[in-house]
Amino acid sequence: MHRADHRPSRRAFLDVTGAMMAAGLTAGCTADATGPGRHGASAGTARTGVPALGPHQAGVTLPRPAQGNLLVVVADVGTTVSAGPLLAELGDSISALTAGTDSRLLGLSPGDLTVTVGVGPRLVRAAGATLPGATDLPRFSRERIAPGARGGDLLIQICASDPLIVPVAAAALLDRAGDRVRERWRQSGRRGTNVPVGEDLSAPRNLLGFIDGIVGPHTAAEQRRDLWLTGPPPVAGGTLAVVRRMELDLPRFAALSVAGQEAVFGRRRASGVPLSGGTVASGPDLGAKTPDGRYLVPANAHVRRAHANVVGTGLMLRRSYSVDEPAPGLLFISFQNDLRTFTATLTHMDAADALLEFTTTTASGTFLILPGFDRQRPLGAGLFGADG
């Protein structure tokens, strides 16, 4: 297959970086979690490089805090293309880009650049029909998704604090892939202002003004339980990603009173504290009621409908990014070791979640995030081998 005719050239990517600079975009670092001794970087502050090699790919739990700028590219792989060599070459390019040794960086420092690669259900099924990641996402309500924005064979997630690095790295990786891939869609996004939500934990605000991504598998034990795949061996160390782009009806949400907005989420807008009280990190008391018997956290509030204990699933590690093109909204990415964690949660939300009334999903896909790689084990070798 050939690359899509609409795929921007390297010149277009460089034009984008120039536009970013002219617009005054800065490297705002925000976080899912902040480990001991870590800190967010302010605009213009260089951040330490993130190793690309290891048991897990970077860009899921590392770095901490998460970078402020993201680009996802979703593509198809040609039906006659061997996935093994393609992925191995992309892994080599990722190593060179993050180390700063790839000439296609054009002299720019990679900083904390991370690249995370996933493969879609079609490729996973070719490696094994029963493997995690072989199942397509079902369709849900409130979707308006063009055929080219649903599914896909290849996910490339690129994150960095420096907004200039992101499109330059994308151009280099797509150049390496060449005519073996055809781009479906892409989306850039930015993280909002970072807010402390607990000891060594922080989360950003979204376009609706609320703190986003408070609950998740933050500890090592939670991540072993709910995030990382443990078997079979070809996928161990990987995870499953769901990527969804959503438009937000900002004017209609903004027309609500603050109390009305808080009822939608089930949390205080300013602090993130649940409407049932406590602290932002303590979680909502879903049984708490007013003296006249009303639930403090409304029955259709987002924190109730999406609560893991209510749904009966594990935790999702969520990274949400605000977008303004093609329309104001969110790029939602969740990582989990069981796709049912996402599908059961969204099914439960579909029935009554007040937040969904302000969203329309315009792109969607699920991908097996490949296990980590190193010099002895190329990216994707466990599933496809480096030679086929």
Structure characterization notes:
The protein is an alpha+beta fold and 388 residues long. It is built from eleven helices and ten strands. The strands form two sheets. An eight-stranded antiparallel beta sheet has the order 4-1-3-2-10-7-9-8. A two-stranded antiparallel ribbon has the order 5-6. Strand 8 and strand 9 form a beta hairpin. The protein is globular, with a radius of gyration of 20 Å.
Topology:
Elements: H1 10-23, E1 69-77, H2 83-99, E2 114-119, H3 121-127, E3 154-160, H4 165-177, E4 181-190, E5 194-198, E6 201-204, H5 220-226, E7 239-248, H6 250-254, H7 258-265, H8 302-305, H9 308-311, E8 317-323, E9 329-336, H10 339-352, E10 359-369, H11 381-384
